[in-house]
TrEMBL record:
Family: Belongs to the enoyl-CoA hydratase/isomerase family.
Pfam family, one: ECH_1
Protein name: Enoyl-CoA hydratase-related protein
Domain of life assignment: Bacteria
UniProt source species: Nocardia vinacea
Length: 269
């Protein structure tokens, strides 16, 4: 990963037991994502997807903001201006891959949002399983205001989270959404006072780190898959997931804990 956080920025990756902490570090640009940072995210999430010792992923921004989106100014000025067709070739393997990995990885993904979550930064928060935001945080999809159409999954995520009418307000009118409204709409998991943000985040991370990780991943996969299927197809998908979950050590521990009337001690196995 890059060490130059004054120009390209970096994504700091820190292993904390079963928890992977990722920090977007480019505070002077409100953590606007450079190509280097996006590559860092793709690499970290790809590695996490096959790491059986991980149980939860946490993403946050350095400084006062979460992420102000992709740094389009830097990547489309001077000699850096993309040639025709570059977006179609490149973005599926970079920015879009980040969202896809967050959405499909069979681990819980938690985002902590302070300040601005704009553009791809907003969509990172939407793609997470749980996003906790400070009360003064702002979510914004500024694509049309900049003269181009949305990307990084916003047209897929928003209608599913808040419905078509609100999705059009956010994408077509470019309305900003304060954290309290975002929580009321179901756009994010929780809003809290800024001073309590870390406390609530750590409590959720602790809870998820102790969960039945394989069952969580199978359930997450089923929720996403079954948005697009009939009821019989959804029931069949659930059945095969249940067959796998029942073969885990955590399933046996859950049964034993229930019989012994004690909290389960899941190991993510």
């Amino acid at each position: 990963m890059s060490d130059d956080n004054t120009t390209d920025g970096t994504v700091h990756s820190h292993r904390d037991g079963p928890l992977l902490r990722l920090a977007l570090d480019r505070p002077a640009r409100r953590n606007a994502l450079s190509p280097t940072m996006i590559d860092d995210l793709v690499g970290a999430l790809t590695a996490a997807a096959t790491d059986d010792t991980l149980r939860v992923i946490h993403i946050q921004g350095a400084g006062n903001d979460f992420c102000s989106g992709v740094d389009w100014v830097a990547t489309n000025s001077g000699d850096n201006r993309a040639r025709t067709g570059d977006l179609v070739r490149r973005i599926p393997h970079t920015a879009h891959r980040v969202i896809e990995l967050m959405h499909t990885i069979q681990l819980p993904v938690v985002c902590t949002v302070r300040g601005w979550a704009a553009g791809m930064g907003c969509n990172l928060a939407l793609a997470a399983d749980f996003t906790i935001a400070a009360a003064d945080a702002v979510f914004w999809e500024p694509f049309l205001a900049r003269g181009f159409s949305p990307d990084t999954g916003s047209t897929w995520l928003l209608p599913r989270l808040v419905g078509l009418t609100r999705a059009k307000r956010l994408l077509l009118l470019g309305e900003k959404v304060e954290a309290t409204d975002a929580a009321d709409w179901g756009l994010i998991h929780q809003v809290t006072e800024p001073a309590e943000l870390e406390q609530h985040t750590e409590a959720l991370l602790t809870r998820l780190s102790a969960a039945a990780t394989i069952a969580f991943g199978l359930t997450k996969q089923a929720i996403h898959h079954n948005q697009h299927t009939t009821l019989p197809e959804a029931l069949n998908h659930e059945l095969f997931a249940l067959e796998l979950a029942c073969r885990t050590k955590d399933f046996k521990e859950g049964l034993a804990a229930f019989q012994q009337r004690r909290p389960p001690d899941f190991q993510g196995r």
